[in-house]
Structure formats: structure tokens, C-alpha cells
Specification:
The protein is of the alpha/beta class and 190 residues long. It has 9 helices and 5 strands. Helix 4 packs parallel to helix 5.
């Protein structure tokens, strides 16, 4: 089973590219951001706990995210594969994901890194905030999220490079150009 990790800073286009990959390859898209926002919207105690982290631009505890993701994957037992969007965000999460995947049959993971210039990321996120109404797409929170990405998340890229499970993608250009680059990078494993 294929586990495609779409990776990049907030605003790099992971969600957009995930939609295209789902449509073309019939994979199940698991956006940890969507899973967490759904839980927050439910008003549950877990949702309130998650909101305390996300509303301040922080990551939720690793084990909590692993548990949520594993439980969600188990509900899609007939899937051809998964696109993981927004996970893993730390090396510890990457190691936990590796351990989780070792228990799953025929697990094949590759990280696809969407590289986008910082100012372009900020512009994209501000624009998304204007159109979507997402409270976390304001300049202060965006800057905090980018700082967290640089310090805690970006090292995940090196983890998968060392395992030779990595593809670097230029995330600048049109949606179609970026998708074409992704397809070329993953064609040998799809």
C-alpha cells in the first residue's frame, strides 16, 4: 500500500495537490488539519484540547496525533493508498509513522517535498484567509507557523532523504506545473 507524504510549509499547496492526486490515482486523502478542525468543530473535549494548541500556532502532542491518524486509517481498510497531508510534522512523528507503517501490510512511504519561497507562502496564506475565513490565516499566526515549520518540521525532510524515500518538488508556478513535477517524481511507485 502506498503512503504518500505531501510535505512543505503552510501554504505550499499540499491540499490542492492532494485533491489532484486523489482524483487521478484514487488514493485516500488524510489531511491532519482537516481531521483536527473537524474534531474542534464537534465541540468535544478532545476538540477543545486540540484548539488550545492550534489557535496559538503550535503543534499538538505527537502521541495524540499518531492515535488520531492510526484510528482514521483503520476506517479505510479498502483504500488503494493514502496521501498524508500535514503529517508527520516532527522527526519523532516520522519515526512513529515508520513504526506504525511497519505493522501494516506492504507499506511503501515516500515524502514529496513542495518547496516554495517564504514570501510566496505568506501571500498564499493571507489570500486563503481572506477567502476561507480561517482564523489561523492572519499575519501573526502565519509567521509563528512558519517559524515552527523551520525549527520543528523541516528536519522531517532530512529523515526521509536519509532513508531514500524522498522527492524534492519545485512548488512555484501553476497548479498544473507543480502537479506534473509530482507525477514525474512518483511515477515509479504508483
Amino acid at each position: 500500500m502506498l503512503y504518500l507524504i505531501l510535505f512543505g510549509a503552510p501554504g505550499s499547496g499540499k491540499g490542492t495537490q492532494s485533491d489532484l492526486l486523489v482524483n487521478k490515482y484514487q488514493l485516500t486523502h488524510l489531511s491532519t488539519g482537516d481531521l483536527l478542525r473537524k474534531e474542534i468543530a464537534s465541540g468535544s473535549n478532545l476538540g477543545k484540547e486540540i484548539d488550545q494548541y492550534i489557535s496559538k500556532g503550535n503543534l499538538i502532542p505527537d502521541q495524540l496525533m499518531i492515535d488520531i491518524l492510526s484510528k482514521t486509517m483503520d476506517t479505510y481498510s479498502e483504500s488503494k493508498g493514502f496521501i498524508l497531508d500535514g503529517f508527520p510534522r516532527t522527526v519523532q512523528q516520522a519515526e512513529a509513522l515508520d513504526t506504525m507503517l511497519e505493522t501494516r501490510e506492504n507499506a511503501n512511504a515516500i515524502l514529496v517535498n513542495l518547496e516554495v519561497e517564504k514570501q510566496e507562502l505568506i501571500n498564499r496564506l493571507l489570500k486563503r484567509g481572506e477567502t476561507s475565513g480561517r482564523s489561523d490565516d492572519n499575519l501573526e499566526t502565519i509567521q509563528k507557523r512558519l517559524e515552527v515549520y523551520e525549527s520543528k518540521t523541516k528536519p522531517v525532510n532530512e529523515h526521509y532523504k536519509a532513508k531514500q524515500q524522498h522527492a524534492h518538488i519545485d512548488g512555484m508556478g501553476t497548479v498544473e506545473q507543480i502537479f506534473e513535477r509530482i507525477e514525474k517524481a512518483i511515477q515509479h511507485i504508483i
